Amino acid sequence: MLNFTYSNKTIIHFGDKQIAKLTKAIDKKRKVLLAYGGGSIKNNGIYQQICDALKEHNVVEFSGIEPNPSYETTMKAVELVKEQGVDFILAVGGGSVIDGCKFIAAAAKFEGEPWDILAKNAPVKSAVPIGVVLTLPATGSESNSYAVVSKLATKDKFAFGSPYVHPEFAILDPMVMSTLPERQLTNGIVDAFVHVMEQYLTFNVNGKVQDRFSEGLLLTLIEEGPKVFNEVNDDVRANVMWSATMALNGLIGSGVPQDWATHGIGHEITALYGLDHAQTLAIILPRMMWEMRTEKQDKLIQYASRVWDINEGSNEERIKLAIEKTEQFFQAVKMKTRFSEYQLGEEVVDTLITQLERHGQTAMGEAQAVTLERSKTIIANSL
Amino acid sequence: MLNFTYSNKTIIHFGDKQIAKLTKAIDKKRKVLLAYGGGSIKNNGIYQQICDALKEHNVVEFSGIEPNPSYETTMKAVELVKEQGVDFILAVGGGSVIDGCKFIAAAAKFEGEPWDILAKNAPVKSAVPIGVVLTLPATGSESNSYAVVSKLATKDKFAFGSPYVHPEFAILDPMVMSTLPERQLTNGIVDAFVHVMEQYLTFNVNGKVQDRFSEGLLLTLIEEGPKVFNEVNDDVRANVMWSATMALNGLIGSGVPQDWATHGIGHEITALYGLDHAQTLAIILPRMMWEMRTEKQDKLIQYASRVWDINEGSNEERIKLAIEKTEQFFQAVKMKTRFSEYQLGEEVVDTLITQLERHGQTAMGEAQAVTLERSKTIIANSL
């Protein structure tokens, strides 16, 4: 096992009717920015629950944070935060709104050009404190220190992280899933699954707790994910939501190497072709697993056995079957797994490789083994 | 799944040579109480590493916190804290030292008779902040809010909990295990195992993540625990240490019912007969499982299957075999599992029942189903 430092300060309020806890979770002395996306929270009752909980608080609103939150939009909120003297940001949404709010929180306190936080890894030295009401289980952003923000003008998509933007609290009420569009449920389940895989499917350092926890999350998503579309009940929603949070709150990745090469390629697909984040991961992951089958053999065999109960055949046969099962799981939660299903063809290969090169993504993964050449093979195999 | 609120603020520094992180983890403006037990840290190099890390800090020492820390001893430290104006407590030890320090931290700030914190659940409203260097993986006390303290004069053993005594940081260097006496390793492994069981082996609320995480910890302890005595290496130590912390940091018990009846009886055995805490748990747990086999049938069958790969036979046969395997695991880590092995006989039954009654322990467990009568059966079956 590798050395690590782990902490997670987010206070999780999980379950039915937890939104009412906002009243005490945010100090009444604070001026609150209530930030959200396209306004669906006004139709599903969440907005009203929040207004009820914050009726004695001083609140200003900012709406319109889009999927793949943009620098352009979030900078408008930064102005509002400064103008109004906001000293607490309540992000109400999924990963995009939360990530956008993390950037707003850091940019509002940043001296200099905030774009440098994203493009140049300029250090964040303070931020407006953040709380979250999660409306879409997927990214884990509600209890981690990371965010991804895009610049529309240049089609760049960058990540940043800072303990200062780690949410103080997160309210997770699984009932919010009951009004989500099918596409968002699909995205959330696949996103969480691939987050686990990025931390699990690496070279083996004998981190037995981390491996078992990762496998537990994968098994839960495999068992419960497809039910979200058919035999959904409170426990199904709760299990999916808690899995997605645990998938990327730092715990399962502590003390083990991490990969993130599938995300590396996926981010470029979203930036160039506008596919949803999870859609890109479902296209790339199966071919990434196959391309890296030699380096990752031990863990792939373990994955085949413990997650899919595949215990017979040659190593290559087991790995192949485990990858097929993975792709079938994506399909079972109504996700496409090929470029061609989005009317994208051979032209993507060179375009994506050029973009990866431009962003210096020439040696991705836990062992820096995903070269441009191997990325090209992976992308070409995913058409 | 049940509603829950979960947070854990402890910053974990895990791995080789992490003790050096003390230098930055404790503000130099603070006056530090370095508190420890019988002095073994002076022989194994830990004391020296701590002194090196704190050479520029203002430190006073308090040693002699005993196994099952006593009110009498800890109150001497409370006086020292007040006299010397200590404003940070560094607990160096296992669960006993940490628990003792939690009580010292709370008692030093308590207005009134500190014993009331233990005996009357008097609310703790502040505490001296605490950090930990863990020397014995076992209780999980290094990153939770709970402590157990005994009063020698009356043979009472009480628990208390408060977020104010939750450690700010904990340093977990698995190498500290290399110089531990066999008995302490045995105790630690069994203690961690039973902590998981108390949160796992309850009625089923379909908390799939919690169940899988619990099973992951049990499997890790079963695989790695016995190796500690033979084929030990860095990874074995790291896996056991991380399992013990994760076993009782609040995570696996969030959103599920919790039992603690085995601990209820176990605490009385320690208070009356001086057996180590884990020794008492290993005596009681197998018979507790058997006595509660109807109420806990679903989870016992799941435990048999997922942890011990027992998938054939009648329900009763599977449960019986799983309990036998559990007891054999305790024996494999060199733990005794019967009163008679400690030269205790029938006389313990009535004495323990009287003590349980005196402490109001007449309906223990997640369903309050462990009555005095059933406790009597469990104890009698454990002779």
From TrEMBL, chains A, B:
Which cofactor(s) does the record list? Fe cation
Pfam families on file: ADH_Fe_C (PF25137), Fe-ADH (PF00465)
Keyword Oxidoreductase set for record:
yes
Q: Where is the Fe-containing alcohol dehydrogenase-like C-terminal domain?
A: 188-354
- Could you tell me the keywords of this UniProt record? Oxidoreductase
User: What residue range is the signal peptide?
Assistant: none
Which InterPro entries does this one have? Answer: ADH_Fe/GldA, ADH_Fe_C, ADH_Fe_CS, BDH-like
Q: Which GO terms describe its molecular function?
A: alcohol dehydrogenase (NADP+) activity; butanol dehydrogenase (NAD+) activity; metal ion binding; methylglyoxal reductase (NADPH) (acetol producing) activity
Give the Alcohol dehydrogenase iron-type/glycerol dehydrogenase GldA domain ranges.
11-174
Would I find Metal-binding among this entry's keywords?
Answer: no
State a GO cellular component annotated for this protein.
Answer: cytosol
Mind telling me which CDD domains this protein's record contains? BDH (cd08187)
Which family is this protein grouped under?
Answer: Belongs to the iron-containing alcohol dehydrogenase family.
Protein name, per record: Iron-containing alcohol dehydrogenase
Q: What is the lineage of its organism?
A: Bacteria, Pseudomonadati, Pseudomonadota, Gammaproteobacteria, Alteromonadales
